[in-house]
Specification:
By secondary structure, the chain is of the alpha+beta class. It has one domain (about 30-115). Helix content is about 40%, strand content about 15%. It contains 2 helices and 2 strands; from the N terminus they run E-E-H-H. It has helices spanning about 65-75, 85-115, and strands spanning about 30-40, 45-55. The chain has a two-stranded antiparallel sheet with strand order 1-2. A hairpin with a 5-residue loop joins strand 1 (about 30-40) and strand 2 (about 45-55). Helix 1 (about 65-75) packs antiparallel against helix 2. It binds zinc ion. The site of zinc ion has 7 residues, from loops.
Amino acid sequence: MTTDRTEAAPTRRSVMDTLPCPRCRQPGLLTALYPDMWHGRSGQPVSGLKEAVLCAVCDRDEAAAQDMLALVDTDGQISPENTELFIRLAVAWVESARRHELDVAVLAEEEKHWRSGEL
Ligand SMILES: [Zn+2]
């Protein structure tokens, strides 16, 4: 299998480089990178990383994010005592963010069909 080399490779970030929220542009609390695959311009699959940014404003109504926000508000940092809890909550939050992104992709596709008159 070949990959589309025209796609930019994700850059490596340190833990300290938390991104601003892409929705409201306020400082993010946590940035997670997770593996993903998409199709490049040539139609070939491309593997890479996507980002999810935890935002105290935009994610306050998301159930999985609420647990992460509560942990950050309570402890303010990850310690040996809460590492296991942090990992468990982070995995649930990333899965929730990934599902939300997939729903947005389905919505965009349906919008395209609606605008073309297919629906
Ligand atoms: Zn936000």
